[in-house]
Amino acid sequence: MSLSTWLAFFAASWAISFSPGPGAISAMASGLKYGFRRGYWTTVGLILGILLQFGIVAIGLGALLATSEVAFTILKWVGAGYLVYLGWLQFRSDAAPVAVEAAAPEDFRVKDLVLRGCLVNITNPKGTVFLMAVVPQFLDPAAPLAAQYAIIAATLCFTDLVAMGCYTTLAARVLRLLRTPGHIRWINRSFGALFVLAGTVLATFSRRV
């Protein structure tokens, strides 16, 4: 991969990472509930999900999803259902005020946040189809593909770490402005509605985008 090609992908990856979607919503929801330091573990899971998606594309399973209506439909509905489930949990979240410097909530577990972030990305077939559409444009078939895949994956992970960190920080700072249960309840229901909306959009996603 030439430097000019990499720079083009680097620029595109910022737009990809900062595009609002299930990952951004998940990062903000975690930042809202746990603050930046704890909530950022969701981003670790999101990155793992991206790497798994990228691996699927790299080894050719992405092509199977593109040609198999059954596989695509199953993954699409699993992802949509999971997002709606997250929305339901967020909608019912406790409305008690949360302090950024407070001890971790009793339900805080690193592995749960990592798993949640990973599932949000890995069950999103639009991400897989998107990678299948974008990545080949930056590949040189005459050069070793493994090294090119590694560069593209590392670049996308870097920009996503920054982008999701920004979303998590934004939500975590909002915590400092929340002083009443009514505020917390309104924010939780807003994020819950966003999750449900993301799940609905995912459910209606067309493979011909």
Describe the protein's architecture and organization.
It is built from ten helices and no strands. With about 210 residues, the protein is an all-alpha fold. The chain has one domain. The protein starts with a helix and ends in a 6-residue tail after the last helix.
Features:
10 helices, mainly alpha, 209 residues
For the sheet with most strands, the description reads: none
Beta strand count: 0
Structural class: mainly alpha
Could you tell me the radius of gyration in angstroms? 18 Å
Question: In summary, what is this structure?
Answer:
By secondary structure, the protein is mostly helical. It has helices spanning 3-18, 22-34, 36-39, 41-58, 61-67, 69-91, 110-122, 125-134, 145-175, 181-203. It has ten helices and no strands.
